[in-house]
Amino acid sequence: MSQALREHLAQIVTLTDEEFTEVLSQFSTQHYRKHQFLIRTGQRVPHLYFVVQGLLKLVYTDSAGRAHIVSFALEDWWEGDFAAYLTHSPATLALQCVEPTTVLCLPLAGYQQLCARFPQMTYFFMVKFARGGVAAQQRILSLLTLPAQERYERLLQQYPTLAQRVSKTQLAAYLGVSRETLSRLADQRSTPKIVR
Protein backbone atom coordinates (compact mmCIF):
# COMPACT_ATOMS: atom_id res chain seq x y z
CA MET A 1 0.00 0.00 0.00
CA SER A 2 2.82 2.38 0.78
CA GLN A 3 4.29 1.63 -2.65
CA ALA A 4 1.04 2.63 -4.36
CA LEU A 5 1.10 5.99 -2.56
CA ARG A 6 4.78 6.50 -3.26
CA GLU A 7 4.33 5.89 -6.98
CA HIS A 8 1.28 8.15 -7.00
CA LEU A 9 3.14 11.02 -5.33
CA ALA A 10 6.16 10.53 -7.61
CA GLN A 11 4.01 11.39 -10.63
CA ILE A 12 4.03 15.00 -9.39
CA VAL A 13 6.70 15.51 -6.70
CA THR A 14 9.99 14.05 -5.50
CA LEU A 15 10.43 12.92 -1.91
CA THR A 16 13.45 11.38 -0.23
CA ASP A 17 12.99 8.08 1.60
CA GLU A 18 12.99 9.93 4.92
CA GLU A 19 10.43 12.47 3.71
CA PHE A 20 8.16 9.76 2.35
CA THR A 21 8.34 7.88 5.67
CA GLU A 22 7.18 11.04 7.44
CA VAL A 23 4.41 11.61 4.87
CA LEU A 24 3.23 8.01 5.20
CA SER A 25 3.10 8.34 8.99
CA GLN A 26 0.13 10.73 8.61
CA PHE A 27 -2.00 8.04 6.92
CA SER A 28 -3.87 5.06 8.29
CA THR A 29 -5.07 2.06 6.28
CA GLN A 30 -8.69 0.95 6.29
CA HIS A 31 -10.46 -1.94 4.59
CA TYR A 32 -14.15 -1.72 3.74
CA ARG A 33 -16.71 -4.21 2.52
CA LYS A 34 -18.91 -3.78 -0.53
CA HIS A 35 -21.79 -1.36 0.23
CA GLN A 36 -20.07 -0.09 3.39
CA PHE A 37 -20.07 3.69 3.95
CA LEU A 38 -16.91 5.70 4.53
CA ILE A 39 -18.94 8.92 4.84
CA ARG A 40 -22.64 9.31 5.65
CA THR A 41 -24.62 12.45 4.88
CA GLY A 42 -24.91 14.70 7.93
CA GLN A 43 -21.88 13.26 9.72
CA ARG A 44 -18.47 14.84 10.17
CA VAL A 45 -15.81 13.94 7.62
CA PRO A 46 -12.63 12.92 9.45
CA HIS A 47 -10.53 11.85 6.45
CA LEU A 48 -9.62 12.33 2.85
CA TYR A 49 -9.29 8.95 1.11
CA PHE A 50 -6.72 7.63 -1.36
CA VAL A 51 -8.01 4.48 -3.10
CA VAL A 52 -5.41 1.72 -3.09
CA GLN A 53 -7.74 -1.03 -4.29
CA GLY A 54 -11.44 -1.12 -5.04
CA LEU A 55 -14.07 1.36 -6.16
CA LEU A 56 -16.04 4.09 -4.39
CA LYS A 57 -19.04 6.23 -5.33
CA LEU A 58 -19.79 9.73 -4.07
CA VAL A 59 -23.55 10.29 -3.82
CA TYR A 60 -25.83 13.27 -3.29
CA THR A 61 -29.40 12.48 -2.21
CA ASP A 62 -31.89 15.24 -3.04
CA SER A 63 -34.93 16.31 -0.99
CA ALA A 64 -37.13 13.87 -2.94
CA GLY A 65 -34.86 10.98 -1.95
CA ARG A 66 -33.31 10.52 -5.41
CA ALA A 67 -29.66 9.48 -5.37
CA HIS A 68 -27.33 11.26 -7.81
CA ILE A 69 -23.86 9.81 -8.27
CA VAL A 70 -21.43 12.73 -8.32
CA SER A 71 -18.35 10.65 -9.05
CA PHE A 72 -16.72 7.26 -8.95
CA ALA A 73 -13.23 6.83 -7.50
CA LEU A 74 -11.05 4.08 -8.95
CA GLU A 75 -7.63 2.93 -7.81
CA ASP A 76 -5.05 5.74 -7.53
CA TRP A 77 -7.75 8.41 -6.98
CA TRP A 78 -8.54 10.69 -4.04
CA GLU A 79 -12.13 11.03 -2.87
CA GLY A 80 -14.21 12.57 -0.11
CA ASP A 81 -16.65 15.34 0.67
CA PHE A 82 -13.94 17.98 0.29
CA ALA A 83 -16.04 20.92 1.52
CA ALA A 84 -17.05 19.11 4.71
CA TYR A 85 -13.49 17.82 5.25
CA LEU A 86 -11.86 21.24 4.91
CA THR A 87 -14.48 23.22 6.87
CA HIS A 88 -15.36 20.74 9.65
CA SER A 89 -19.00 20.89 8.55
CA PRO A 90 -21.47 17.98 8.24
CA ALA A 91 -21.24 16.02 5.00
CA THR A 92 -23.70 16.81 2.22
CA LEU A 93 -22.43 13.79 0.27
CA ALA A 94 -22.15 10.10 1.11
CA LEU A 95 -19.16 7.96 0.15
CA GLN A 96 -19.84 4.24 -0.29
CA CYS A 97 -17.96 1.19 -1.54
CA VAL A 98 -19.06 -0.30 -4.84
CA GLU A 99 -16.54 -3.11 -4.32
CA PRO A 100 -14.46 -4.27 -1.34
CA THR A 101 -12.05 -1.36 -1.00
CA THR A 102 -8.77 -0.52 0.69
CA VAL A 103 -7.97 3.13 1.30
CA LEU A 104 -5.29 5.24 2.89
CA CYS A 105 -6.97 7.79 5.19
CA LEU A 106 -5.55 11.27 5.74
CA PRO A 107 -6.99 13.28 8.65
CA LEU A 108 -7.24 17.05 8.25
CA ALA A 109 -4.56 17.65 10.90
CA GLY A 110 -2.25 15.33 8.95
CA TYR A 111 -3.01 17.13 5.70
CA GLN A 112 -2.26 20.49 7.33
CA GLN A 113 0.95 19.17 8.88
CA LEU A 114 2.16 17.76 5.55
CA CYS A 115 1.49 21.07 3.79
CA ALA A 116 3.26 23.04 6.55
CA ARG A 117 6.26 20.70 6.65
CA PHE A 118 6.79 19.90 2.96
CA PRO A 119 6.37 22.53 0.22
CA GLN A 120 6.29 19.74 -2.35
CA MET A 121 3.21 18.25 -0.65
CA THR A 122 1.49 21.65 -0.80
CA TYR A 123 2.27 21.65 -4.51
CA PHE A 124 1.06 18.04 -4.88
CA PHE A 125 -2.32 18.77 -3.30
CA MET A 126 -2.66 22.01 -5.27
CA VAL A 127 -2.19 20.08 -8.52
CA LYS A 128 -4.61 17.32 -7.45
CA PHE A 129 -7.30 19.79 -6.33
CA ALA A 130 -6.88 21.86 -9.51
CA ARG A 131 -7.23 18.77 -11.71
CA GLY A 132 -10.27 17.71 -9.71
CA GLY A 133 -11.81 21.16 -10.16
CA VAL A 134 -11.25 21.05 -13.91
CA ALA A 135 -12.77 17.57 -14.13
CA ALA A 136 -15.80 18.71 -12.11
CA GLN A 137 -16.33 21.70 -14.42
CA GLN A 138 -16.10 19.46 -17.49
CA ARG A 139 -18.62 17.06 -15.98
CA ILE A 140 -21.05 19.88 -15.18
CA LEU A 141 -20.72 21.27 -18.71
CA SER A 142 -21.30 17.85 -20.24
CA LEU A 143 -24.45 17.38 -18.14
CA LEU A 144 -25.69 20.83 -19.22
CA THR A 145 -24.85 20.70 -22.91
CA LEU A 146 -24.31 17.19 -24.26
CA PRO A 147 -26.93 14.66 -25.28
CA ALA A 148 -27.06 11.48 -23.21
CA GLN A 149 -25.53 9.36 -25.99
CA GLU A 150 -22.46 11.58 -26.15
CA ARG A 151 -22.07 11.61 -22.34
CA TYR A 152 -22.23 7.81 -22.40
CA GLU A 153 -19.64 7.56 -25.20
CA ARG A 154 -17.27 9.92 -23.37
CA LEU A 155 -17.60 7.92 -20.17
CA LEU A 156 -16.71 4.70 -21.98
CA GLN A 157 -13.72 6.38 -23.63
CA GLN A 158 -12.39 7.97 -20.44
CA TYR A 159 -13.02 5.02 -18.11
CA PRO A 160 -13.29 1.88 -20.25
CA THR A 161 -13.39 -0.57 -17.32
CA LEU A 162 -15.96 1.32 -15.26
CA ALA A 163 -19.00 -0.07 -17.12
CA GLN A 164 -17.89 -3.61 -16.17
CA ARG A 165 -17.45 -2.67 -12.50
CA VAL A 166 -20.71 -0.85 -11.73
CA SER A 167 -24.36 -1.73 -12.20
CA LYS A 168 -26.43 -0.19 -14.97
CA THR A 169 -28.51 1.57 -12.33
CA GLN A 170 -25.39 3.23 -10.88
CA LEU A 171 -24.06 4.13 -14.32
CA ALA A 172 -27.44 5.68 -15.20
CA ALA A 173 -27.42 7.71 -11.96
CA TYR A 174 -23.96 9.02 -12.84
CA LEU A 175 -25.00 9.96 -16.38
CA GLY A 176 -28.24 11.59 -15.22
CA VAL A 177 -30.53 9.25 -17.16
CA SER A 178 -32.95 6.46 -16.32
CA ARG A 179 -31.84 2.83 -16.41
CA GLU A 180 -34.12 2.29 -19.41
CA THR A 181 -32.47 5.18 -21.27
CA LEU A 182 -29.04 3.73 -20.48
CA SER A 183 -30.14 0.37 -21.95
CA ARG A 184 -31.24 2.18 -25.13
CA LEU A 185 -27.92 4.04 -25.31
CA ALA A 186 -26.01 0.77 -24.95
CA ASP A 187 -28.18 -0.87 -27.62
CA GLN A 188 -27.61 2.04 -30.01
CA ARG A 189 -23.89 1.77 -29.45
CA SER A 190 -23.82 -1.94 -30.24
CA THR A 191 -26.16 -1.72 -33.26
CA PRO A 192 -24.18 -1.26 -36.47
CA LYS A 193 -25.19 1.83 -38.41
CA ILE A 194 -26.34 1.28 -41.99
CA VAL A 195 -24.79 3.68 -44.44
CA ARG A 196 -26.83 4.40 -47.57
TrEMBL record:
Residues 11-132 form the Cyclic nucleotide-binding domain. InterPro entries: cNMP-bd_dom, cNMP-bd_dom_sf, Env_Response_Regulators, RmlC-like_jellyroll, WH-like_DNA-bd_sf. GO terms for cellular component: cytosol. One of its GO terms (molecular function) is DNA-binding transcription factor activity. PANTHER family: CRP FAMILY TRANSCRIPTIONAL REGULATORY PROTEIN, CYCLIC NUCLEOTIDE-BINDING DOMAIN PROTEIN. This is Crp/Fnr family transcriptional regulator. It comes from Hymenobacter crusticola.
